[in-house]
Amino acid sequence: MKDKMTIILFSGELDKAIAAFTLATTAALSGMEVTIFFTFWGLNVLKKTTYTVTGSQNILQKMFNLMSPATLPISKLNMFGLGPWMMRRLMRKSKMASLEDMMKLARELKIKYIACTTSCGVLGLGPEHLVGEVDEFAGAATYLAEARESNINLFI
Amino acid sequence: MHLDKTLDCIGLFCPMPIAKTKQELDKMNPGQTLEILADDPGFEKDLPAWCRMTGEKLVALEKEGNIFKGYVTKK
Q: What is the DSSP string of A64-104?
């Protein structure tokens, strides 16, 4: 049987997403089957457009999505967007792979994306708002069934 | 040692040297040897660890200045 790893990506911050995707891609490159379960703030990583505000959402969902855009902050020293800008610049300068590079690699390695349906429902997000790479829309039981078969399970 | 290919990962950081090593080995035939050049300090530990996980054969790992030279024979 193949080794498996799962990650719950709960956070919607650039630095944490980079950590998650570094581990996910390295595990897949080492022959593991990798699943990432995107929930709550983690769904921001998958949003297609910066502001995901649509007519199908109620006023609170609209406000929530407006205040939680797809441009990811960093978990410390965010400084109203200056932090992520500096971080991306530093990463480019030191030739570190960007989050976008790693997400592209993740798709090439067939890392499975599951989007949490409960979070999607609360936030008024549908498949049309998220990138096309989402393999499944599912809940806790689907995640746990995968996690149970996996040797490594992380919550980020 | 007979080398079939050299892969330059100088200037790249984790996880890219491992990613490129895997992608390059995928294009090669069993028994062929790949030389990997890297200067990410983590590479010295990461390449042997990756070989242990995947079963690829690490033939040698040398250090010249701050450059690591890894030699992997495809299984």
A: HHHHS-SS---SS--GGGHHHHHHHHHHHHTTPPPHHHHHH
